[in-house]
Amino acid sequence: MTRSDSTISARYAGVVGNFVLEVAFAAPMRGITALFGPSGCGKTTILRCVAGLTRLPGRLVVGAEVWQDDEAATFRRPYERSIGYVFQEASLFAHLSVRRNLLYGRRRALKAGAQEHIRLEDVVALLGIGHLLDRATGALSGGERQRVALARALLAQPRLLLMDEPLSALDRMTKEEILPYFEALHTSLAIPVLYVTHDIGEIERLADHVVLLEAGRVVAAGPLGEVFADSRLPVARAAQAATVLEARVGPFLAADGLTSLDVDGEALLSPGRLGAEGSIYRVRIAASDVSLAIERPSLTTILNILPVRVADVEPLSEAQVNVLVTIGHRDGGRKLLVRVTRRAQRLLGIHPGQDMYAQIKAVSLVASSSRQLAPAGPDREVLDGPKTGAFVSRRGGPQKGTL
Amino acid sequence: MPELEELWSPIRLTLALASITTIVLLVLGTPIAWWLARSSARGKEAVAAVVALPLVLPPTVLGFYLLMALGPNGPGGWIGSLFGLRSLAFTFEGLVIGSVIYSMPFVVQPIRIAFEAFGDRPLEVAATLRASPWDAFWTVAVPLARPGFMTGAVLGFAHTVGEFGVVLMIGGNIPGETKVLSVAIYDYVESLQWAQAHILAAGMLAFSFVVILAMIVIEKRIARPGI
Fold it and tell me: What's the CA gap between A324 and A314, in Å, rounded?
């Protein structure tokens, strides 16, 4: 498999209405890539272009297949692209039962020669919609409708799943009800996802890669950890800027009631019993919940102290700076964003290359994840495996807790 | 007691005319309604106006032009000559052509509205589920527009049954060929045959009531979609 076989590369330049779109980005053929930006930045238009529903001049290559190439006059129409599309509103067919909605795309995909990677029973079990199969679509709740829409898209045996703000039309409660199912998708399917959203919480929970958009242009693109830690970008400058890291659950320390988490080779302690040893969680560390010290603090109530190396100092406002550090007194550790005052930065003389200690006041668990945020290793067959074993039964529920 | 066959002939003729007209209109009207609902062509509303013209045109005016068109010197006469007829006027075939034009808006309009009502989304969804436009038309658009088809068919049928002016102009009253119900009633009244006029008029009244009732029931049913 060459590199180009494992990426989606898109380039579009054109005008929709009075809106100019000019984007180029690449996304890996695995995991969830979020197209993120404010309303009106063109993210939905891009998704529609990838689906072929909107046609803008450009080029789109998905794996080894060219779906659009204006120079070669290639344009696959939407029904010739192996996609699944989940719209903002579930858009179920009102004249069909849930079951017939689910089978609509499946039958056509199989007829078009697709292999059945995703079976009805598996999707129904994964999304918990077994009891809905014989209902009319009008009788479903908002959350149920969106789950059925996702199942319907998955059963079309897509090579690429496109999701256009699938949660934004839902209320908060329903969102919380659905997110675990999306995480299950994240952990158990081999299908790459392009996920449009303007909700940073959804990205922290779901995304592996981020394409940051603004006014019809790509501002930044890359792995979640890289993009969110880039101080020149608005996400890292926002008041609620945070770092998302992955943590492997270690032993439970019964005497203290704490669970040990392994984050990039360093141990963090977190209250409560956090599930099976070895399972992987995403943790979110708010930049303002981290402080820096020159020497390892000893007389402190804060348990979580990590050795870090300063990578970058970026002025933020009159009073504050963002300090980007990497974990460990070495190069190449995971990035962690720290928000400190300018005064503290000046008094301590914080500068790139300096070894320091980060005190972390709070770690929140955002999601369970059976895979890594980092680029693929050899042990990723569940994700990259072509057919059998595309599903695993394990599903971690959402757990949120602050230390 | 009036002779049964004399009464029965216009009824049979009317039902045949209305049925054939409705079928022709569903076949012709559906693509027109689809085009009017979904095209962004500039001349679209002009075509829509032409289709709707019979709504406002006096039937005698329409009938006059149809008579010219169907007569021996019009295109209808030419077409008729291919089948060994001198003209299509005063024939059953001519009546079908006239009725199709006259009842067209009653069929096209409800179907167009039904096609417009569900918007682009269901068709986009179908496309992302690997359905070609032709496939999506039959499996998504037509089922979703079912109420429009029902309404259009019922209205087209009923309107054809009730037409009078156009029939009189292009059909006359040849028994068994062009003498439909409405013309028959008129004839009976003209010749003071009140009993016959009563029977046919009462039959029409009952028929119209049943049609309206059926439409209401159908719409209610559709409003509660089944599985």
Answer: 8
